[in-house]
Amino acid sequence: MSKPLIAISSEGYAHLLANYLTSQSLPAHVQPHPDNDDYVVVLQNASDVELALPICEAFLKHPGDPKYQQAAWQSGEHVDLHPGKPSNLSVANLVNWAKTAPFTAVILFICTAVFVLSYLGFFDVLGSSLRMLPLNEVLSSHEYWRLITPAFLHFSALHFIFNLLWWSMIGGQIERVLGFSMILLVFSISAVASNVAQALVSGPAFGGLSGVVYAVLGFVWWLGWLKPTWGLSMPRSIVGFMLVWLVLGYTDVLWVNMANTAHTVGLISGCALAALLALGDSRRKQT
Predict the structure, then answer these.
(1) Each residue of 46-56: b (16+ CB within 10 Å) or e?
(2) Catalytic site residue 23?
(3) Residue 85 — φ and ψ, nearest 5°?
(4) Do 22 and 14 form a contact (C-beta atoms < 8 A)?
(5) Residues of CATH 3.30.70 domain(s) within the chain?
């Protein structure tokens, strides 16, 4: 039997709370208040009230906590807290987002700066410093940064936008839930692994953040499966789309050249890191 929990004047915030309750295994939905303009958050099961009340109190104290928006995103629902206002792209919102995921924001900024400068005619200068070299040259010159920096190079607007949108959403999720050190680890390992693998298979003429994007996808996907209580998850529709895109890259039917090896190795490295992390946690609990 359902049970009304709280009435909220903002429809957006009501949906935000309902989504978060549902993500905590307390199914809830929103319905209009019968007597005024408020919106009522209704629990599907009346027996969940005692568990839901502390969550409700915490939400009222800090409704802007990123975990509530994260729950809405994971459910596949877009919650607009300010309908009719283009606030999602405001400078203040971008700054607030950057504060919650600083490393993710730094990589976004670096890739953006490199892309803009490349568009303005500095691609050759940047490329000479950032692009991959044959691995024997990297080792002999000790320019080891080149194992990572090809991730900052993008060759078209579509390439840039596609990678940075996924990086911002998925990388930011990892950083907010597991912290700076974890997203730094995932980025570093996957960038090196995917870049080295691509260089070995096809040579040094490639670039882009795609290998890292597939790594963070695999990391969140597998941790959501292995450790669902950790708060990371990926909608199946997104996983399916990215896997189909990965397979299409090998068929040569797309209009762009794909760094297929980097994508595949990135995905494997992200999944492997998630598995190792989950395994390590399980072993600690057994000791």
Answers:
(1) eebeeebeebb
(2) no
(3) -115, 135
(4) no
(5) 3-89
Q: Which of 23, 233, 263, 269 is catalytic?
A: 263
CATH 1.20.1540.10 boundaries in the chain:
95-286
> Is 140 tagged catalytic?
no
| pLDDT tens figures, 89-102 | 456 667 777 888 89
Helical residues (DSSP H) of 37-90, grouped into ranges: 49-61, 66-74
Domain 3-89: assigned CATH number: 3.30.70
Q: Which of 118, 210, 233, 269 is catalytic?
A: 210
CATH code: domain 95-286 is: 1.20.1540.10
Tens digits of residue pLDDT in 14-68: 888 888 888 888 888 888 887 787 889 999 898 888 898 989 888 888 777 767 7
- Residue 86: in which H helix or E strand, if any? none
Report pTM: 0.69
* 253: phi then psi, degrees, rounded to nearest 5: -95, -10
